[in-house]
Structure formats: C-alpha cells, structure tokens
Amino acid sequence: MKLIFFLFVFLGVQCSYSQKKSFQNPPASYSRIVSVDESSYKDAVDLTNYLPKGYVKNGSIDYTAYLQKGVSENLKVLMPNFPIMINDKGISLGNNATVIFQSGSELKLKPTGKGSYFVLGVRNISNVKIINPKIVGDKDEHLGNNGEWGMGIDIRGAQNVTIYNPNIKSCWGDGIYIGHSGSSSKNISLYGGVINNNRRNGVSVISVNGLIISKLLIANSLGVNPGTGIDFEPNSHSNDIDNVIIKDLITYNNMKNGVLIHLDKLIGKEEKNVGIRFENFQDFNSSRPVRITGQFKNKNRSFKKVKGEIIFNGSKFSGNASSSAINSDAYFPKVKM
User: Fold this and answer.
1) Which H or E run includes 325?
2) 3-class DSSP state for residue 243?
3) Euclidean distance between CA atoms 238 and 231, whole angstroms
4) Do 222 and 190 contact (CB within 8 A), yes or no?
5) CA–CA dist 8, 71 (Å, integer)
C-alpha cells in the first residue's frame, strides 16, 4: 500500500508539473519602463525617408531592404512611427549603431517556414544601443514546424550592447539570444521592458562575460522546451557564463522554469569560472521558479571543475506547481539561495 501511495503522489506531482500551461496576461504592475535620455534622439535619421513612394503604414508590405539600406548608411536611426513588415533576412546592425523606436514603431516578422531567423541581428560588432524596440515574431503564423531558433534580437560575439525597454513577443524561438561567434559576447545590458509569449525562452544566455539585466519582465515562454524565462545554457567548453548580475527580474507563467541554469557543457580541460548573482528576483506561476542542473557524467576525470558562485538574494516565488530544484555535483559552482 505504501508503494502504491508513493507512486500515486509521485505521478500526481509529475502530472501537475508537466501540465500544459496556457497564456496569462501578467499584471500591468509587473512591467517596468526605464527612462532614456532624449538627447539620444538628436540627429537621428528617420528611416521613413528610405521607404518607397506610396508606402503603407499598416505593416502589410515587406520593407526589409529599405530599412537595411538606411541602417547601413547611418549610425543613428529613427524607426518609422508605424508598423513595418520584415522578412526572415532580418535587419543587421553595424558598429556604433543607435536604433531608436518611436511610440508607434514596430517590426513585425512576415510569416516564414525557416526554423532559424532574427529580426534584429547584433553579430560581431561593438558599441550598440537599441532604444525601446518593439518586435513581433511569427509564433502564431509560422509556416510549418521546422526548428526553434527564431530570435527577436540575436546577439553573438558582440561587445558593449545596451537595450532599453525591449517589447518582444511571439518569436518562434527566443525573445533575445546572447551567444558566441568567434568569442563570447561581452558587456551586454538590458534595462526594463517586457518579453512575452515566445515559443522557447524569453532570454537565452549561451556565452557572455559581463551581463546586466535590470527590471525586466519575462512571461509566457510557452511552446517547446526549455520553456523558460531566462535560460543559462552554454553550448560548449569555449563558452562563458561570468560576471552576470540580474536585478529586479520578474518571471511569470513560463512553461517550465522562471530561471534555468544548465552548465554541463562548460566542463573541459581548462578551468572555468561562473559568476551569476540575482537580486530581488520574483517568479509567479511558472511551473518551477528555479532549476539548476549539473551532473558530470564524462569518464574523463582529468577535466577541470567549474568554479564560482550562483547567488540568489531576496527571491520571492508564488503559484508554482513545483519548488526550486538544485541538482548539481562537485564539478559545478556553489549555489546560495
């Protein structure tokens, strides 16, 4: 009888945890907008001037090539003050770029069958500012089921990138991806904003040295695994997860986790250091608020440990089907919660 009771409880917990979540609007009070110095707008070139004669303002015609030309020819640009359709080539930014979205600006992805895309690409460049970006992906209109790597903003091997008040929703993969391209991304900052209803993760952090996230709301990461607000998940030993500070983050109603930290692939022949610090992190209604995993199963015991610390100060969790889970062995950093 005890065994039967145990199985009943265990299966009940598992069913509760894996239960399919549905979209829920987060309370308006969870969203924080940070102020931006309006002097940033001075001398910005309005990309409306690059659109063809007779352009429409309802986001029904693809103007990707026109916007790309404007971005390529000017360091500081102002997005048109109305919705613009973008195709799966996306808009690639250059060094020293400043991109400003007005109150009516929006980049809306034209539905695609590609499993991998970006709307804004920030790859192997430095000194970039993106102010108040509003991006809508094709999660609800995607053509087929291929892939899971459609990104709102794709940052790889970039340095000194600051994003203010991102409003990114409905991407086929992640709202924001921060990764490796020849080297780790460095000195990336996200301030304020809402990342909502993306299919995989709100933010994926694959490789970064120097990351600040402050006053960001990530909600409704629903669709495919990991289904997480912020997912720290390096792809290889060459990646980095260090000097990361997360302040006043709120995650809400994410399919699997508010935060996932999965470091297995950092193990290797050289010693790695991980530093992640959370201050005043709150999760509401995600299936699990925090999951930290690291089990070194490789038989090569000459590999070095991953040192460092993962610290949570002042965290508050509510409405979770399962409590936080820490499943990490001696090869991985200390966790303080």
Assistant:
1) strand 325-328
2) strand
3) 18
4) no
5) 59
Q: Which H or E element spans position 205?
A: strand 201-205
CA distance 333 to 111: 42
Helix (H) or strand (E) holding 164, with range, is: strand 159-164
Distance CA 156, CA 125 (A): 9
Annotate 247-263 with b (16+ C-beta within 10 A) or e (fewer). Answer: bbbbbbbbbbbbbbbbb
Strand partners, 307: 273
Element (H, E) at 18: helix 2-18
Give 54's contacts (C-beta < 8 A, 6+ positions apart). Answer: none
Dist. CA 72–CA 97, nearest whole Å:
9
Alpha carbon distance 235, 266 (integer Å): 8
* pLDDT, one tens digit for every residue, the chain (337 residues): 333 333 333 333 333 344 579 999 999 999 999 999 878 788 999 999 999 999 999 999 999 999 999 999 999 999 999 999 999 999 999 999 999 999 999 999 999 999 999 999 999 999 999 999 999 999 999 999 999 999 999 999 999 999 999 999 999 999 999 999 999 999 999 999 999 999 999 999 999 999 999 999 999 999 999 999 999 999 999 999 999 999 999 999 999 999 999 999 998 889 999 999 999 999 999 999 999 987 777 667 788 889 999 999 999 999 999 999 998 877 788 899 8
